[in-house]
Amino acid sequence: MESAIPAHLQTARTRHRRVGDDYAPPYPSFVARHKPSVTRVVMAYFGLQTRGAPSTAAEQALIRLASEFSAADGPTHWDRASYIDEAGFTNLVTVAYWDDRQKFDRWFPTMRERWTGEQRTNNGFGTFIEALYPSVEGYETLFSSLGRPEGVAVLADGMSGEVLEHAYWGGMRDRIPLSQTSEMAASGSACAIRDGTRIRIIPHDNICLIRSGQDWGDTEATERKMYLDDVEPVLREGMDFLRDQGRSIGCYANRYMTVLGPDGVATEKSYGMSWWKSLSALERWAESHPTHVRIFGAAMKYLSALGPAAKLRLYHEVTVARADEQLFEYAECHPQTGMLNAVQTVEMA
């Protein structure tokens, strides 16, 4: 049994785990392992927002974005997903990952100006960028099975063996290396500034991002029916609550996304991604809110019934980022989009 925190990031603890070394998790889980030389990653979400089906101009913008990803210093991995938001807009979100900040810094400025800046043309759709640049001490991953990494884990050197810190409340925090010495508490407040055609969010310290995914592509008839009939509707109910009422509990925005294949067709994968005021706010929802209690109960009933035979794949990545590790920009998006939800008014630059 391994610690989720790799040996080179372990340090003398001033804050202790919720479980002792004799804890034995009831089922196996795994985490991504980067090479020790990787000290920082980039998670950049490029969003396109449109009323109804994407126009030809919107489709062309997505094609250009994919082409830019193939250029020098482009991301090591990217994927695309879609969802219909609370205002009825279609959002196509492409998330790209780098494990070399210098490559990202060389690649990003030109694309930034084309996506949300002065080189952007008004083609009747909104665009946004939501990016984090956390140190490897500031985030964690968790996978229910091996062999198919998702998200930032695609960049990793490999996966761990079975890890200790999971299947208990607090495991998420315990897997983040910073938790050994830091509370990672939020401080300050976000504000919005209009900068030309875009609105920039000036964030506060220690905002939290979670991407939590499901892949039912390998399931067969009985298991697939159990997931789609008994688990997915409960998950969707919780995702809708966070989307519509999340601000009351510290969730600035939530998207329940359907992953798209290279051909743009929906796959049998989904993920929820949400912005939280703090890791503590996310933990409180996970541990005690009725919507998540129902999700957890439905998932446990499903997994208990199937045991090791379950072919559903689950994963997540959770990041806590300092204010100087964040970037949020929105151009012609409706005011409930992403981190625009975190502020009340927009100031002029």
TrEMBL record:
InterPro entries documented for this protein: OXD
GO molecular function: lyase activity; metal ion binding
Pfam families xref list: Dehydratase_hem
Cofactor(s) needed by this chain: heme b
Keywords: Heme, Iron, Lyase, Metal-binding
Family assignment from sequence similarity: Belongs to the heme-containing dehydratase family.
Protein name, as recorded: Phenylacetaldoxime dehydratase
